[in-house]
Specification:
The chain is an alpha+beta fold and 476 residues long. The chain contains 16 helices and 17 strands. It folds into 2 domains: 423 residues, Amidase signature (AS) enzymes (Alpha-Beta Complex); 47 residues, no CATH class.
């Protein structure tokens, strides 16, 4: 059972097809692990154990009655889904007490594709209220702890997804990312998290038009598993007019990565930035990331050049861009009878800043300021194939001390290097590239030019093939 909880999904799929392991064994192992370690990390809002076991039994029977080549790509594989993605028949709380009993009638687009591919839902993972903050703490579920050090944050807002993976609760997780909400927790917890190009995965909220920043996406412990999830969820959908057309070359690349294809980076030019502008990562992070950069040169044959990238102030930009959206959420909550006092002061402050902004202010932020961000990255990619940076300025921070507003105490430090690529619409992935002297994982962010999801994941896969950081697991 212990071996099963750390086995990649791609390998489990092969074992299922060979009838060497049953979906029942896999799901039982994951649920047993959840029962053992979740009390220490608090990564779940809802656990769907009974439903998962029933579906695993059905999947096992189908294996016996179906040719291996006809089984679906995720047949019998367990997965967790962040509690911002709607799941028909299973509650979606959005991390807020007012939504405790909300059950969607329809699945989100990405989850419907994963479910149709044979995935089995283990449970819904924790998120801060409406995914609005960079640490995983809500008044509904409390604090989600980091498996490497339970006194530290798991990151946000897909904190439950990343913590569950790092703790061995399933090989696959589904999250979302608006400014780092997949990559930040993945880096904090030492797993893989991919923020796809804007439009690559259709926006799931029916009736809402995407601004091209918020995306859903995969988390896993290996790049191969990450590629597998993206290969299933990528592609256009009529409900999202901003979704990208089908890309056969990308799907072929993703399927090859999921099958374990070896990748050569020989001849690639990679830019390396220690931060953006004056924001440079701490020394204990930089020493690990610099060592990772040498792997691309000495082990993988790429050329790595140091670059400096000047960008608009990330904190000001965040407040100017997201403030009006925060105000909209606060107003919607008021319509549902939710008192403003139940929301974090940080959220209310952002909302008030959004209310004070004029239409001209918002237009300037979404066009001119956002254009400066895109132009800065385009200048790098004019003569480089990829850009690597630390994912975070600091390792996972300690939980903010008890206060009326722990979110404000945590500050915006965690998203400083992940926010800009999101607003440029670029693909970016984080992989574990080593540990600090205190034993905390360090994330390496690999950013690509527009729509280069395949190249980003190929580089991440090559790095994992040359290192063993991703094979290390926390102990409790």
């Amino acid at each position: 059972m212990t071996e099963l909880i750390w086995t990649p999904a791609t390998e489990l799929a092969t074992l299922i097809r060979k009838r060497e392991v049953s979906p029942v064994e896999i799901v039982d192992a994951v649920l047993d692990r959840l029962e053992q370690v979740n009390p220490a990390i608090n990564a779940f809002v809802t656990v769907t154990a009974e439903q998962a076991r029933e579906q695993a039994a059905q999947a096992a029977q189908q294996v016996m009655n179906t040719p291996a080549e006809d089984l679906k790509p995720l047949h019998g594989l367990p997965i967790t889904v962040k509690d911002l993605t709607e799941t028909a028949g299973v509650r979606t709380t959005y991390g807020h007490p007012a939504m405790t009993d909300y059950i969607a009638e329809e699945d989100g687009i990405a989850w419907s594709r994963l479910k149709a591919a044979g995935a089995i839902l283990i449970g819904k993972t924790t998120t801060p209220e409406f995914g609005l903050t960079g640490i995983c703490e809500s008044k509904l579920t409390g604090i989600t702890n980091n498996p490497w050090d339970t006194g530290r944050t798991s990151g946000g807002s897909s904190g439950g997804a990343a913590a569950s993976l790092a703790a061995g609760i399933g090989p696959l997780a589904w999250g979302s990312d608006g400014g780092g909400s997949i990559r930040v927790p993945a880096a904090c917890c030492g797993v893989v998290g991919h923020k796809a190009s804007s439009g690559r995965i259709p926006f799931s909220q029916a009736g809402e038009y995407s601004l091209g920043v918020d995306v859903e996406g995969p988390l896993a412990r290996t790049v191969g598993d990450t590629a597998l999830l993206l290969s299933i969820t990528a592609g256009p959908h009529l409900a999202d007019p901003t979704s990208l057309p089908a890309d056969r070359d990308l799907i072929a690349t993703l399927q090859a990565l999921a099958a374990g294809a070896q990748v050569s980076l020989g001849g690639k030019r990679i830019a390396f930035a220690t931060g953006f502008g004056a924001r440079t990562a701490e020394d204990d992070v930089l020493s690990v990331v610099r060592a990772a950069a040498t792997v691309f040169v000495d082990g993988l044959g790429a050329a790595v050049d140091g670059v400096e990238i000047e960008l608009p102030d990330t904190e000001d930009y965040f407040a100017d861009f997201f403030g009006p959206q925060y105000a909209l959420i606060v107003d919607e909550m008021a319509e549902w009878g939710v008192e403003a006092s139940t929301l974090w002061p940080f959220v209310l402050e952002c909302a008030e800043r959004g209310r004070a902004a004029t239409a001209v202010d918002l237009t300037r932020t979404m066009t001119a300021t956002r254009g400066k961000i895109a132009a800065a990255f385009s200048a790098v990619f004019a003569d480089h194939d990829l850009l690597i940076t630390p994912t975070l300025l600091t390792p996972a921070i300690q939980h903010p001390s008890a206060s009326d507003d722990p979110i404000a105490q945590a500050g915006g430090v965690l998203h400083m290097l992940t926010e800009p690529p999101s607003h440029a619409g670029l693909p970016a992935v984080t992989v574990n590239c080593g540990f600090t002297n205190a034993g905390l994982p360090v994330g390496l962010q690999i950013i690509g030019p527009y729509h280069a999801d395949g190249a980003v994941l190929e580089a991440a896969a090559a790095f994992q093939s040359a290192t063993d950081w991703h094979t290390r697991h926390p102990t409790f």
